[in-house]
Every structure is written in C-alpha cells, then in structure tokens.
Input
Amino acid sequence: MKLLLARVPLMIVVGLLLGGCASFEASVERDRSLRDVQRFFVLSNPTDNRALDQHIAQAFKTRGRSVAIGPRTMMPDDTQAVVAFQDHWAWDFGEHLVFLKITVRDPFASQPYASVTFSARVPRREPTAATVGRLVETLLEK
Output
C-alpha cells in the first residue's frame, strides 16, 4: 500500500507532462473568415484508408454547413471553399492520429487562406472524430 501511495505523485506529474503534448494551431489570412461560408467541398484523398474526408465533412455538417466530398472533378458549381487535408498516423498497439492539417482555399485558387493543424508528440487515445471536430470548430471560430 505504501509503495502505491509513493507512486501516485509520480504518476500525477507524468500525466501532467504528457497531457500537454498535443497542440492545435489555426491561422486565417487577414480580412478573411469562414463564418459566412456555407458550402464546402472536401477533396477526397485516394490513399485515405481511415475515412478522414468523411470525418471532416461530418464535422462541418454538424456545425450547420453544406458539404460535398469527392475528387476535384466532382466539385459542385456553388462551392464557396475547398477543403484539403494531410495526415500522419503512428502505431502504438493500434493506429493513432499524430498529425492532421486541414487547409481551406477558394475554389479557383491554389493557395490556402486558412489552415488548422493538430500535432501530438505522444499519440492520444481520443477518437478521430473528436479530434477532427475540435479542429473544424477551431477553424470556424477564427
């Protein structure tokens, strides 16, 4: 019992140190905002085996936006913003998202005007949908 009580403070310190190992960073160009954008198009990634495009689209839909998914050739004419993503996963007795960058650009421009990045040094045990939802929320608030 004493051995367990002696380890509790150490476990708390380690937990606090590891808790700060994830970061969310968002940026939006000056004089731009996503608050008035209602129609998004999420570019599907042919190498995405984890349905991140579906998670991203669902996060926008949950926040009241209209979203379509697919290759660039399937983009609807009324699209206001194109969403692309880059991801990286790590294996630690299961796959975990350790990096995700979501970028937003005008349908007829190549440079993004808004982006949000999730980066974790230590894989989180959070569901992918929750992480994506937090990223989209952060992006829409900017």
About this structure: The longest helix spans residues 2-19. The chain is about 30% helix and 30% strand. The CA atoms of residues 82 and 133 lie 17 Å apart.
